[in-house]
Fold this sequence. Notes:
Helix content is about 45%, strand content about 10%. The protein has about 90 residues and is mostly helical.
Amino acid sequence: CEGCFDIWRIGPGAVAAMGTxxxxxxxxxxxxxxxxxxxxxxxxxxxxxxxxxxEALAVxxxxxxxxxxxxxxxxxxxxxxxxxxxxxxxx
Length: 91
């Protein structure tokens, strides 16, 4: 996710990159997880960055999925959308 409000909304297991940019160190840390779910804001620029991040992570073992929410971001998503996200990826 992009920020702390998003991860608070999703709950345990979510992490924030603190924006759409990411460092090499962050990329390498993300690469260690067998499943990586990218959930940036739904605006076009953020989704472009999400796609780039997914492509950068594709060379590492594991699976990377880009999730685009109906809401602007996770912090503003409906309870149902967050429940579905948690069910599918966190449990």
